[in-house]
Design brief:
The complex is a heterodimer of chains A (214) and B (423).
Chain A (H helix, E strand, L loop, with lengths): L2 H32 L15 H10 L8 H20 L1 H11 L8 H24 L1 H6 L2 H22 L5 H18 L7 H19 L3
Chain B lengths: L2 H13 L2 H9 L11 H6 L11 H11 L1 H8 L8 H13 L7 H4 L6 H14 L5 H12 L8 H15 L4 E2 L6 E3 L3 H5 L3 H13 L3 E3 L9 H4 L3 H17 L4 E4 L3 H15 L6 E4 H10 L14 E4 L13 H9 L29 H7 L1 H10 L3 E4 L2 H13 L5 E4 H8 L7
Parallel strand pairs in B: 1-3, 2-3, 2-4, 4-5, 6-7, 7-8
Chain lengths: 214, 423
């Protein structure tokens, strides 16, 4: 298989397969969560809790200024990932080919800035797994794997765009394959927080809303 | 595997529900919850990181309720929960967590960590590992009707003393009145001025109320133990008493955990709604204030005062505004601690921690957070609305040689009422 064939495989069957596994995995994980059910609320509530739930989903996306030094880098790379994934022109073209619609892209130099911020934020976050006591005690081996699986698409994408090494076609193929690895790992690792965060925030926020705290 | 360990694990397995699964699915091991926890911030010991306390529960969830975890277990990649795991969890879930729930307010993925700590406590109780102090209190509460083990006659005697002091008749077992009042043991024997205070307030407001000789204890050690069956027994006694007296409203005393048990946990542990409403005493007083039924001195005190929010009533229970309305009514110089209401810092005595002998040294250390908060304001009076908080504050202030008074809010309101001959 040469570079072109590899790229075609990655763009074609590879992407289809990875997408299938990701969607299937997310559905399975959602089923695992919701099938456990939740006890009925018998206490007389102060509100339905819906507002509390929605508020929490939104509010917890905004970092608490007090904790900025512990969590700032992590927020930064989340924002960076979001911008780079959804506002880089070639990515939008890819989404358009699947979804059938598109949206405006950001200029490449802005994407470049966000890429660097993402890379920096991720490296800082990785280091903090060793240096921050509460983070270190929570860390398990798979946290490093998950970090690597997330970091690969970012760094390969950056290298491809800047044509740092080797053959462009080959780099692009590697970049796409690394994204596919991420897609496969996502539902079955703690990367599941990318969708379950809304569920956990909802449960907590609505419970607080019912009691009148939010 | 011993039977008790098996019981503990089975209880834990049954306690894992959809919210728990979503919380574990979402946790990214960031450790930020530690910065919300006084046990971590005041000691710097990483083991107190809130999510770290739940390690056995997380492992069990993964092994039992995820496909991948089941596979891992099948091929021997994950370890079963051992007796040693459970014993280690006692320190982290009972002895160094006041279930204050501050961690639940800052978790970026929104995990309600205390919701799970309570389940973990229930499993440890089922495994026979609950602290003896709590077990003893639970037995006394159910058998004798009070967590301190005194009989109903003690309350009756305190009621007579309050009647003598105030000259106001106080009902016991009077049916069809507006409110049935519950108290925590500490309020009956230690902070008993609350009885006379309420008699004065309610008389002036024209509210009718009673105690029940069948149920007067509001503190619920079963809740601290995470043992829903024990918690439910006490709730059932209270429900039966309220039904017998045909009251439409039950008042929870100041005690924060009592409020949590009666108001929010109660109907859920007995599995049916109440035929009456439950209010925190401070909610009732604020309603009376709003209705203009509290006749108070128009002028208020200028001495700066602050307020310590009990975690279970404020953050966890949703009573955040009424106390502030009352304080502003009484003082022109009510100052807030930097972190208050839903984000207050725990005094360090809640969740049963204050009743455990083992925790004495640790409690002294973690009180420093509250000390700093009070020092910053330079006030001489701290008002609170929980007997446990009050005890913890008094003890902590004493240990730190701080010249600060602690008073209960109900008592403060009563002191602020116009005397009859003044009105």
């Amino acid at each position: 298989m040469n570079e072109v064939e590899l790229l075609n495989w990655a763009r074609g069957p590879g992407l289809v397969g990875a997408s299938f596994i990701m969607v299937f995995g997310i559905i399975l994980r959602l089923f695992e969560i919701f099938s456990l059910g939740k006890a009925k609320e018998y206490a007389e509530v102060r509100s339905s809790g819906a507002m509390g739930g929605i508020k929490t989903i939104i509010q917890r996306s905004i970092p608490e200024p007090r904790y900025w030094r512990y969590i700032g880098a992590a927020y930064l790379f989340h924002v960076g990932l979001f911008v780079v994934i959804f506002f880089f022109m070639p990515h939008i073209l890819m989404f358009e080919s699947v979804l059938g619609f598109s949206w405006p892209a950001l200029p490449n130099f802005i994407i470049d800035i966000f890429s660097v911020l993402t890379i920096g934020g991720m490296i800082y976050t990785l280091m903090s797994r060793f240096t921050n006591p509460s983070r270190r005690i929570m860390t398990v081996f798979s946290d490093y794997l998950v970090w690597a699986v997330t970091f690969l698409p970012v760094i390969t994408g950056y290298m491809t765009f800047h044509r740092f090494v080797g053959d462009y076609t080959c780099m692009l193929a590697i970049h796409i394959l690394s994204v596919e690895l991420l897609m496969i790992v996502l539902p079955f690792s703690k990367l599941s927080h990318s969708f379950s965060f809304a569920i956990s925030r909802w449960y907590t926020g609505s419970a607080f809303g019912k009691r009148g705290t939010l | 595997m011993t039977t008790s360990l098996e019981q503990g694990i089975n209880t834990l397995k049954a306690a894992i529900d959809a919210p728990t699964a979503s919380y574990f699915s979402s946790c990214v091991h960031c450790g930020i919850c530690a910065y919300a926890c006084i046990f971590y911030t005041e000691t710097g010991e990483a083991k107190y990181t809130p999510m770290n306390r739940l390690e056995p529960m997380k492992r069990l969830w993964e092994q039992e309720y995820t496909v991948l975890g089941r596979l891992k277990k099948l091929i021997g990649l994950s370890k079963a929960i051992t007796q040693a795991d459970m014993e280690a969890a006692v320190e982290l879930n009972f002895e160094s967590c006041t279930t204050c729930g501050r961690c639940s307010m800052i978790c970026p993925v929104g995990n309600d960590i205390v919701y799970m700590i309570k389940k973990m406590r229930g499993a440890l109780t089922a495994a026979g590992l609950a602290p003896p102090e709590l077990k003893g209190a639970a037995v006394r509460a159910i058998e004798k009707g009070s967590v301190m083990g005194f009989p109903m006659e003690t309350l009756a005697a305190q009621v007579r003393a309050a009647e003598k002091e105030t000259g106001i008749k106080i009902n016991i077992d009077e049916p069809n009145v507006d409110y049935m009042l519950l108290l925590s043991s500490a309020e009956v024997v230690q902070f008993d001025e609350i009885i006379g205070s309420l008699a004065k307030i309610f008389k002036q407001a024209g509210v009718t109320w009673t105690f029940s000789s069948k149920a007067h204890e509001a503190a619920n050690p079963g809740m601290h133990m995470g043992a829903k069956d024990i918690e439910a027994q006490q709730i059932e006694q209270m429900v039966a008493a309220a039904e017998e007296l045909k009251v439409k409203n039950v008042i929870s005393p100041e005690c924060g955990h009592a409020y949590m048990a009666i108001r929010w946990d109660g109907p859920n542990v007995i599995g049916r709604p109440y035929p009456f409403k439950v209010f925190h005493i401070i909610e009732v007083l604020d309603q009376l204030r709003e209705q203009g039924k509290l006749k108070t001195n128009a002028c208020c005190t200028e001495e700066p005062i602050t307020f310590h929010d009990p975690c279970q009533a404020a953050r966890r229970g949703g009573v955040n505004q009424p106390q502030r309305n009352l304080l502003n009514m009484m003082s022109s110089n009510f100052v807030e601690m930097k972190q208050h209401s839903a984000c207050n810092w725990c005094c360090g005595g809640g969740g049963g921690v204050g009743s455990l002998e083992k925790t004495e040294e640790l409690r002294k250390r973690i009180f420093h957070r509250k000390k700093r908060q009070i020092d910053e304001l330079g006030v001489n009076t701290v008002v609170t609305m929980c007997a446990t908080c009050r005890n913890t504050l008094e003890e902590g202030l004493e240990n730190n040689s701080m010249d600060v008074n602690v008073i209960g809010l109900t008592e403060a309101v009563a002191n602020h009422l116009l005397k009859e001959n003044e009105s």
